[in-house]
Write a structure and sequence with these properties.
The structure holds two protein chains of two kinds.
Chain A (H helix, E strand, L loop, with lengths): L1 H16 L7 H12 L5 H12 L5 H40 L7 H29 L3 H19 L6 H22 L1
Helix pairs in contact in A: 1-2, 1-4, 3-4, 6-7
Chain B lengths: L1 H15 L8 H11 L4 H12 L5 H44 L3 H30 L2 H7 L2 H4 L2 H15 L2 H4 L3 H14 L6
Classes of the chains: A mainly alpha, B mainly alpha.
Amino acid sequence: MKEYWELFWSFAKVGVMTFGGGMAMLPILQREIVEERHWATEEELVDYFAIGQCTPGIIAVNTATFVGQKRKGNLGGVVATMGIVMPSLIIILAIAGLITNFSDLPVVQNAFAGVKVCVCVLILNAVLKLLKSSVVDRRTLVIFLLVAGCSVGFELAVKHISPVIFVLLSALAGLVLKELEARRA
Amino acid sequence: MIYLRLFYEFFKTGLFSVGGGLATLPFLRSMADTTGWFTRAQLTDMLAISESTPGPIGVNMATYVGFTTAGPLGSLVATAGLVTPSVIVILLIARMLQKFRHSLIVERAFYGLRPASTGLIAAAGLSVLPVALLNVQQWTATGSFLALVRWPAVALAAALVILTNWVKPTKNLHPILFIGISAVIGIVFRFGGV
């Protein structure tokens, strides 16, 4: 029972501290789940994000379900998910019921412009940590640079490109590259 | 029965939106058009609030739309609808992954997947960077390069990079602390320009 409660509480904490969508959750997850609780490794986190990009639903929820399932089976997955959505429920209900012009308030706009700068830096720091477990040789470096470059490029050209394409192509690349390597050896 | 319909609509949204919270937006737009529960203008307001409150954006949106449509219970039902399909899918995948994690095919696929996943995350961080650090509107209005760069934001970013990477006493502090400080600095120096 205590372990379920810990799962719920940890993911509720992650939910409260996530500002600005799924990717902003990564630095918080690294801190709370990988470094403090040791419930997942950096490598697993990258895997969960990769799978979350090409499966239905929200990446934050997908990651919570993964970690919860790993800890305590199916029920653990459900409990962790409930944890991550609970803060949203409470906060949005409070705001929707009380302040309708919340996002127009100057204080909120200014605070969020500051938070945005911080979240960018934190995400890029998080990427540096992830690089250690994901970019292990020259070929994986090329994949990393290609995917990052292409998706920024498309984003700036105001054409959204589905991450699913990158995920599928890179999995295929992994299979082909390793097969070639095995044949050469 | 409004709650059943609400659950059904959000279940559909959760099932078909792939790739994160903002992917739910097109579905919510069509929900506004077909159900008449809320207008597209309301949706824009709800998105602004969802982006400026803690929590995953997709969950915030579902909670808000559910509340607007059917009160507090509605928000609970909408959120449950949104997350149910992904919880089921992920539980199935997690089981398979446990079984096949060390199989040759899965290991090889992840060899390529991991750098790509990291690349996507890097891209998400990088594509917010110009929005956070540059002011293109000011630049086109005044034509001065000095007006293009949000200097206080750049200074904050530089300070954060140093404090979170190279200064021993601060680099292991909890990330939420830096977020909080940045919010205060944003308010004091009017980062939003209002």
